[in-house]
Every structure is written in structure tokens, then in C-alpha cells.
Amino acid sequence: MTSTVNDLLVFYDIDGSGEESMAITRSNHLVNNNTSTLYDIVDLIEVSLKEGFFFWIEILVRRRGTRQFELAGYAEKAPGRAPADILKNLVGENRAG
User: Fold this and answer.
1) Residue ranges per domain, the chain?
2) What is the pLDDT of residues 37-72, one digit of tens each?
3) How far apart are CA 70 and CA 5, in angstroms?
4) What pLDDT is recorded for position 97?
5) What does the pLDDT look like over 20-34, one tens digit per residue?
């Protein structure tokens, strides 16, 4: 599957470099550019926020069949809650449907 910029639902770049970033796509994928990880949102069952450094939070996800959370990305504390909330809603919709 090839994604295009039109597939992007949310793109969050914490420092403007394009390197440490994450994206949520319309085709139900979460992309972590920092760790080169692609998650299918259908496989995710939980999203969590963890306090990080001074003004950062970590966005963590848990896949179906696992007990441990994985780092999905970093974000600024206040603005980073928006992509985390969107991701939580998508995961919740998939679990309900």
C-alpha cells in the first residue's frame, strides 16, 4: 500500500525537523517517523500518555495480544494531547465496531 499526502489525517512534528514526528492516516495507520514504526490502528487497543521531560509527553500504544505499551511518539504537553485524543477516539471506535 502506498500512502500519499492526501491520506494524512493528522501530522505532528515536535521540533519542525520532520524527523521526530508521527502521523495518523485516513487509512487507519499510525506512523512513527522517529522509530520507523507503522501501526494498524485496528490492532491497537489502548492509548496512554506518560509525563516526559520538562514540557514533553510520551504517547504510548498497546497492541492487541500484548501487555506492554510501545512508544508511538513524543509531543509537547498541551498541543500533544490533541493527536493523542484523536488516536484514542479512533481506537475506541475500532473496539466498539
Assistant:
1) 5-96
2) 899 999 999 999 998 777 888 899 999 999 999 988
3) 25
4) 62
5) 788 888 889 998 887
Count other C-beta atoms under 10 Å from residue 30's C-beta: 26
pLDDT at 83 over 60: yes
Residues in the chain: 97
DSSP for the chain, written as a single string: ----GGGEEEEEESSSSSSSEEEEETTSEEEETTTTEEEEGGGEEEEEEEE-STTEEEEEEEETT-SS-EEEEEEEHHHHHHHHHHHHHHHHHHHH-
Determine phi and psi for 2, rounding to 5 degrees: -110, 130
Q: Which residue has the cell 484514542?
A: 88
Task: Pull the grid cell for residue 62.
Answer: 498497546
**Fold classification of 5-96 (topology level):** PH-domain like (2.30.29)
Q: In the numeric block, which cell numbers belong to residue 35?
A: 522509530
